[in-house]
Amino acid sequence: MEKKELYDITMDHMMNPRNYGKLEDADGQGIGKNPDNGEMVIVYLKMDDGKIEDIRFQAKACMTTIIAGSIFTETVKGATIAESKELAQIMLGKLDSMPPEEAACSEMVAQAFLAALDQYEAKKSDPDALVPTHMIGRACALPEEEKQ
Q1: 3-state class of 91 per DSSP?
Q2: For a Cys-Cys bond, which of 21, 59, 66, 116 suits 30, CB 3.0-4.6 Å?
Q3: Could you confirm whether domain 3-141 is CATH 3.90.1010.10?
Q4: Rounded to two decimals, what is the model's pTM?
Q5: In the chain, where the domains are located
């Protein structure tokens, strides 16, 4: 993929995030949270016959998180649970090669998604299962003035 094409895709997701907002009557919800700064992502799932029929997210975070959430939710919509878990694991596996601030943002999205799948599974035996929170393991890069 060329740099210009990647830039255009990123800008499009920034200006027009897909799947942003709350999903009423979600079959599963999960939170990905950055314990260092309080940023978080909530993912909502609507399932149908083992596939993601609909997925939405909300974020109290930076624009990089919104872009990551938009791209990720667009990618997994319509996927099976197994396929979507594999995509989340692929995303998590690529984080070491990303700048720390982008890695933390993407990790929050993936962890919120995995937490939503956890609640979806838990609700099969306990309809009142709590919404799980997965903390991220990466920290955003500190501004230069805080590094000293």
Answers
A1: helix
A2: 116
A3: yes
A4: 0.90
A5: 3-141
